[in-house]
Write a structure and sequence with these properties.
With 90 residues, the protein is of the alpha+beta class. The protein has one domain: Multidrug-efflux Transporter Regulator, Chain: A, Domain 2, CATH 1.10.1660. Helices cover 46% and strands 13% of the residues. A hairpin with a 2-residue loop joins strand 2 and strand 3. It is elongated, with a radius of gyration of 19 Å. It starts with 14 loop residues before the first strand and ends with a helix.
């Protein structure tokens, strides 16, 4: 998929094609379909294209929370990777 710069007036439109919405949010189109399946966004069909309301895209972006790693989470996976690396280097 070719990345193009978004024009600053995308906020002035009522609907965004799913590809543009994905670009605005920094996610894949598949992720938007998953979010729609979870009820987090509503998809619409307009003139044969799947679109999202621009206000829903902005609301979804505003609902993002800062990510912080959880201590101890995935510790077993990290240790397994370290063990594999150690075995390969022997």
């Amino acid at each position: 998929m070719q990345r193009t710069a978004l024009s600053p007036d995308w906020r002035q439109t009522h609907f965004l094609p799913i590809a543009k919405a994905a670009q605005v949010l920094g996610v894949s189109r598949a992720q938007l379909y998953r979010l729609a399946g979870m009820g987090r966004v509503a998809l619409h069909r307009s003139l044969g294209r799947v679109v999202l309301r621009t206000e829903d895209v902005i609301r979804l972006a505003d609902s993002a929370t800062p990510w912080t790693p959880e201590p101890g989470r995935n510790a077993a996976a990290v240790q397994a990777i370290r063990d594999q690396r150690t075995q390969r280097s022997r």
